[in-house]
User: Which sequence fits this backbone?
């Protein structure tokens, strides 16, 4: 009987410690989630289509999967999301996500500038066209025997525009998809656009970039510190980026 009592006492003490440890770790997890539960966050995602004529456009291969994964992850942690998306077949699941559909870079620019001032921060995951036709034809351009030239003009830089108006209480995260001099180009964008950190992915990494369900990223903060991650599903990559955002609030 004494042995049983002793064993019961020992079991109770061990499990008491286990419960206390669980309470501590669970408390930390809840506190991390609370850091984002009251935040309103702007996310841009997907491609933009720049019209040449009524049936043709200049675009890119972005699917929007990374931005949608970020929206769902942040929404699951209680954040209110304003998701501005270019053309995509993806759908949203969480009711905390307000979706705004746009087509062109100019439309995304206008929607972003309108939404950002009321947000706690923004994540610029969209693959916005750098150029748009100077003139959009009103009728379909017919095939001819001569070369056809299109004069292009630069689009407005959304991330740089938001960086210019960002308050000290707002954060701004950018993305960089590079093919060469990846880290140096990303760090240049980080500084030039007044970002708090930038997510770099390279088309030289197999399984990363457009159209994939996976991504391989490097996160670079404004102190120039880099964190490299292995190839993961974009759902898991979204968690890594959100964890970096939580760390930003802990600074």
Assistant:
């Amino acid at each position: 009987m004494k042995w049983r009592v002793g064993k019961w006492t020992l079991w109770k003490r061990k499990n008491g410690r286990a419960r206390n440890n669980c309470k501590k770790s669970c408390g930390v997890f809840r506190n991390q989630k609370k850091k984002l539960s009251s935040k309103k966050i702007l996310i841009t995602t997907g491609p933009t289509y720049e019209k040449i004529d009524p049936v043709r456009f200049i675009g890119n291969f972005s699917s929007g999967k990374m931005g949608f994964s970020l929206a769902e992850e942040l929404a699951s942690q209680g954040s209110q999301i304003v998701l501005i998306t270019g053309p995509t077949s993806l759908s949203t699941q969480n009711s905390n996500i307000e979706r705004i559909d746009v087509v062109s870079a100019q439309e995304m620019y206008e929607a972003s500038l309108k939404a950002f001032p009321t947000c706690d921060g923004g994540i610029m995951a969209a693959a916005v066209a750098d150029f748009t036709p100077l003139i959009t034809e009103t009728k379909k351009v017919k095939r001819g025997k001569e070369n056809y030239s299109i004069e292009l003009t630069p689009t407005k830089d959304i991330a740089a525009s938001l960086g210019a108006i960002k308050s000290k209480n707002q954060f701004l995260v950018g993305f960089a998809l590079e093919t060469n001099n990846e880290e140096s180009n990303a760090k240049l964008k980080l500084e030039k656009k007044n970002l708090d950190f930038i997510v770099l992915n390279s088309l030289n990494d197999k399984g990363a970039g457009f159209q994939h369900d996976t991504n391989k990223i490097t996160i670079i903060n404004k102190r120039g510190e880099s964190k490299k991650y292995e190839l993961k599903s974009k759902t898991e990559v979204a968690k890594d980026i959100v964890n970096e955002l939580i760390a930003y609030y802990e600074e």
